[in-house]
Prior knowledge:
By secondary structure, this protein is mainly α. Among the domains are: 21-175, no CATH class; 269-315, no CATH class; 371-473; 480-527, no CATH class. The protein is 48% helix and 8% strand. It contains 16 helices and 13 strands. The longest helix is centred in the middle third of the chain and has 39 residues, at 328-366. The protein is extended.
Amino acid sequence: MENDREGPYSVLTRDELREKMEKQIAEISEIFSLSKSDATVLLMFLRWDSHRVSDCLVENKEKVLSESGLKPVVANPNQELSNISCGICFKTCDEYYLDDDDYLISTPYCSHMFCKSCWRKYLGKNFYLVEKNQTRISCPHPACQAAVGPDTIQKLTVRDQEMYVEYVLRSYLEVLEIKECPARDCNYVIEFHQKNHDGDEEDYSLNVVCLCGHIFCWRCMLESHKPVTCNNASDWLFRDLKSLSKVSGKKPLSLSSIKTTRQKTCSLPLIKATTNTCPHCFRRVDLGTKQYLRFLTCACGGRFCWKCMQSEEDHKTESGWYKLCSNVLERRAEVENSCMEHWKASKVSMKQAISDLQAFEESNMENPGYLSEKDMTIIRKGLMLIVQCRQVLKWSCVYDYFHTEYEMSKREYLRFLQANATSLVEGYSKTLNEEIERASSATSENFCCVKHKVTIETINIGNYFYHFIKTLREGLDDVKVKSYTDYGGLFWLCDRCTFGNTWFHKECTMCSDDIAARVELSGLSLN
């Protein structure tokens, strides 16, 4: 269902990633006769671009070595060893000779000496514990640009060496299209191969399936949220946390607490609070300092109530007084509650699907060998597909909230698609669980007669959800509002009851009101 046939990404362990990085360092070291330490410094300085490193070394080797801090600085030959002291704490060599565990250390390219303790504090404060990586670690002396590489770090403690390796690896991750899986206690990393996307793919991003079983969005690092955009997903999670906080009585969490990525994505609560969509031209109107006003005038000339989105005329009574907003806000609250209920029910179903997958894996570990590896793969793919389908159904509730608020017919069609998809998944899940029980008590030969059926149903479910997601992304185009083909008039016709509504009404007044107002369509024709 993920449709990753082109292989836009690959999942690696941290050891595999480290091997790949070390291979790149070894190639530069071998080609240009540099030490691996100097090659590491150069690659970090030029952001792990091997082609750029090669070009710079060929064009002007002395210049790039000097800029990266790999050119030796002439030491003072008249300075006596006994007078040398740590450049930070100012203890002399004689004092450090009394302690076998601590002594003065300098880089190979300068004569500035520092003790192990000061090295540790300097590296931790300025590099290891800083969120953003630097392209170069330089000598602690303020006026010295000598590079600090692995050859210097090897003289420090084992803990310092381990932190340096993690720092270099983090530098490698930041520069290249590589991200860590956001799942808790997961040590896998994902390397992205495909860099060019069209606008639609950037909006919806790519779903990544980690080997740990976690499925997440590459762009925002939240859990997979097809068929809604990253902004819709973050905005809904913000609402979900507020809803949970009301139930628990605790202070709502900030949106940043649900993010695992360092790059913060834009959230919509502030935008929705300060802007609104004109019901006539559908452009965003900035409320600005006019939030105290009840009615706003858009640039298109349309005037509407920013609370209920109805026109000013709809608020006037026969006597000329303004009446309160109609039950539009109540209906919005009903819609939100309905979507939230579907969301919570879908979360329970998804947790059950994950539990079934984990139970299968545990059963396989306890009783290995009762099925062939190929048969195990078929069942595992089926159970993982159910998890993904449940996840799509969960996020389709969010699509319902954001995209069908004023279109009742599209909401009804979406609910029909959701019910049909849920029924298919439940039937497929029941069939798969029956086959798992049968396989656990039967031989591999007996299971061969039913695995073809499981494979076919897996393909059918995957295809159905692929088109389900596509239909939602296209805006449920199968449901179209009937309108005049050659007349851009002041009315649109409801596709359910064919009632004529003004463009100020986002939902049919006939379908939503018990007693519909009569609207004369004089001078207009349906032909």
